[in-house]
């Protein structure tokens, strides 16, 4: 796999983990909130059951109060009358009142006829709770609530039951009633089941949305990367071809210069030397004149070699800097073409050598284009810096060209070379052309400047 694809994959994995983590956190937070609400709902329902038991117990005590208040500790008739009243106070299928004496003997139980007359003090429920003993203890304390497991009359199954026990101290009786809590627990359990199902569905929906979305992003990134890679490969091929074309063009130019210039001058030198040699042998008075002609031709060849050397790599650029090199380039251009060049430089040389070379080559290529195509009579070159960013403008009054060709990448080889030189340093090359002429602006970033000298700290 390509390194860039690996980087994209490594970026996608944390994204998936982050999405799942956030989803899990939101799910946990929602679960906690809903469970808290369910617990509150359960507590409220239990509180309502407690109030119901208190009301029922007070109702029963009010029903027997008149008889109980007038009776003595051993008034059997009153006791029987109270038992009868309590047996008749049952409510619903599972609502009734029960009575035990403090010794654990059952006196009243409307739903279970086998309990009256027997002692149940040692009765223990499946959880190990001593039910009757604890209810009697609550009654002796002045009354209280107690939860335990008891057989539900309507179904015959064991269920959680909450009872309130009150004491009739004069007779040493415990009177109580209770409500079954299975409906409360069933409602809360159903709510919790719904919560779990909702959370599962939410997590599933988020996963089904997030994971394909991330995979889609990954696939899109892969496609974009593949497309960019193809474009980069095409640009690289085009660049390679342009480099080859540039090399061939430069070689052809040098070949023409050598053949038409230096070679012709050297041939002239050879003829002059041959003529001088014959005249010397013949002791002719014109020998010195022929030698002078040869020397002049040789000087022309030397000048031509210097000119070509200057065009390939001007020494003044290395020795004196960009501004003198541009001035020399402008003067040679004017001398060769007759086109006036007005140059203005208001800056402090701060560029790295390779950046200076890039600007010099851009100016050189621009002047060549002006000479070949623009039919201009005047050129302006301005070099300045703006907030430590170097700028160079080259403008002419020639006939211009269509800017669309540059924007669409169909410009000449020279313009593309200039743009690539600027792009190498992260700079820009702006071209504006019209009937009034062409203006070319090269802009370099701060990164093209010399690195500031590091001053060593004093020890």
TrEMBL record:
SUPFAM superfamilies the record matches? ATPase domain of HSP90 chaperone/DNA topoisomerase II/histidine kinase
Question: How does the UniProt record describe the way this protein sits in the membrane?
Answer: Multi-pass membrane protein
Q: Which Pfam families match?
A: HATPase_c, HisKA_3, sCache_2
Tell me which residues make up the Histidine kinase domain.
257-448
Q: Which GO terms describe its molecular function?
A: phosphorelay sensor kinase activity; protein dimerization activity
Main localization, broad class: membrane
Q: Tell me the compartments it is located in.
A: Cell membrane
Q: Which GO terms describe its cellular component?
A: plasma membrane
Q: Does the keyword Methyltransferase apply?
A: no
Looking at the UniProt entry, the stretches that span the membrane are: 7-28, 201-226
Q: Which residues form a coiled coil?
A: 229-257
Q: Which UniProt keywords apply?
A: Cell membrane, Coiled coil, Kinase, Membrane, Plasmid, Transferase, Transmembrane, Transmembrane helix, Two-component regulatory system
Q: Reply yes or no: does the keyword Kinase apply.
A: yes
PANTHER family (UniProt xref):
NITRATE/NITRITE SENSOR PROTEIN NARX-RELATED (PTHR24421)
- Stated name of the protein: Sensor histidine kinase
Which organism is this protein's natural source? Answer: Sinorhizobium sojae CCBAU 05684
